Amino acid sequence: MQNTPVDVSRLGALMCVVAPEPRVNPDTGEVRTDREGRRLYVVGVSVRQAESRRAEVIDVVVPGEAPAVAEGMRVEIRDLVAVAWEIDGRRGTSYRAAAVTPVENGGKAAPVPGRAKSGGDG
Q: For the whole model, what pTM was predicted?
């Protein structure tokens, strides 16, 4: 496996779109741990490329306590690493980080400009 550090300062807006869940072994249902014995959690993060309308959702694995983030919160990612993998002829990239934390201004996403609030007659 090849680990590649990701420069998160080059990414655009980061938002939690799937709340943290324990990473489990699909065969046994046991929660996975890292080499130090810390539990692993998966957080779905929407990554919007800077100066672009393109966005992707990546699953970021973090060790330790469950990150204190919820769906819809803007987040910061510390020490993000992309891990290239290959298993049984399949290839992909997974993402690991030291931490996923709320943005310091409270973390709630700002309203999208030009989008009306729901509940009106339109």
A: 0.81
